[in-house]
Amino acid sequence: MNRIAKSVVLNLVLAGGLLLSAGPAWSEQEAGGAPGAWLSTYVNARTLGLGGAFVGAADDASSVIWNPAGLSTLVPNELRMDVSRLFEDTTLGAFQFAVPGSKLPSFGLSVLTLRSGAFEKTDDMNNVIGTFRDTQTAYILTMSRAVTPRFALGVSSKLVRQSLEDFSGGGVGFDVGAIMNVTPAIRVGASALNLGGPSITLRDTKETYATQFRGGFSASVMRGRGLITGELDQTQKYGTSMHGGSEYWIQPAFALRVGMNDQRPSGGFSYRTGGHYQFDYGVSDHPLGMIHRIGVSYRFGGFYASAKAEPEVFSPTGENAVTNISLGSRTKSDTDNWELSLVNKMNQVVRKFGGKGIPPSHLMWDGKDESGMPLPDGAYSYQLMVHDADGRAVLSPAHTVEISTGGPQGSVPVIPIQP
Prior knowledge:
Keywords: Signal. The protein is mostly beta strands.
C-alpha cells in the first residue's frame, strides 16, 4: 500500500468510526475526515444514551466538552473515565477530573485520546516495512465561575497533539460557554467551540478545527427522577444537527436512557453503588455498525447532602420500632433550609421533615405518615434537599428504607409425647 492509498484508507476508517453525532448537512462524506471531527463529536457513555444532547444539562465532569460553564453546576468533586472500541481497532478514551468551587472558580482537567489500529507501512516497491498508527490527544483545562446563583460562565483552553507515521504537530484553541437556570427545573446553555484553533501542521499543510456553536436545554421532571434534554449544533461549513434524549431513574440505583442522535437512535443505562460510584453504558446506531461505550465515575467530597437510614428494614410494632436517619450537608454559601421527603412506590410524599438552617445530625422515623397514621409495609425512598442562602440546592443520593411488620415465616415443629 503506497502513501496515498494509506492516507485514503485511514481517512475512511476515521470518518466512519469517529463521527458519532453527524446530521444530514454534516454528512460522513463531508466532515468524517475533517480536522478535529473526533473531538467535536465526542460523547461519553451517559451522553451517548442521551443522543448527544448535553449542552443545557452539563451536570458532570464531562460537561467541559459541551459547555465549560457546566462545571459551576457540579456539587461533589468528580473523577470520570470512559472508553470505547470503535471500528478497525480504533479506540477512544477519556479521563476527566472536576472540582467545584464557591468563592474560588470551579476547575476541570480532561484528557482525551484517539488511537487508530495498526496500518501497514510499505516502501515504493509495496514491500511491508512495518506499521504505523494515528494518535491524537487533547488536553483541556477548564475554569468556570458563577456570576449569580442562576448564571455561570466558563472557558476552556485546549492543547491538541497529533502524530501520524513520522510526522507530528500540535495546536491550541479555546471554548467558551454559558449556562442559566431559568427555573429550578429548567436550564438552558450555549457554547462556542474551537475558537482560534487548534490548527495543526503535520507536514506542510495547516489544518484547522471547525468552529462549532451549540445551544440547548434540560428539564428536570418527576421530582428529579427524570431528565429531558434537547440540543441544536451548528458547525462551520458543515451545517446543523439536532439531538434529544431522556433519562429516568427507575430506582435510586438504576436509570434508563433513550435518545435520538440526529437521525440515529441511541440508549443506555446507569447503575449507582455506594452513593459514590456510577457505571454508565451507552449504545448508538451507526452506518458501520453499533457503537458501544462504557464509563465509570467516582464522586467524593466537595459540596454535598447525605442521608442514611439505620436499620434499613424496621418494624414499628417490633423490636426495631424506629429507624435512625443520619443527615449531613455542605453548601456553597450559608445553609438556609433543609427538607427530607419519604416517598412511596406511587411517587407520593408520605412524610416530610424540614426546617431552617443546617439539618440535624440525625432524626427518627416511626413509620407513620403526616397525620400520624401507620403506613403499610413496603419500601419507601428518601432524599435530603438542602438550600443555601443564594437559592442553590444540593440533593443527596436517593436511598430506600423498608417497613416490615410481618415477621419471619416458618412452622413450629410438633414433637410427639412418649408415653
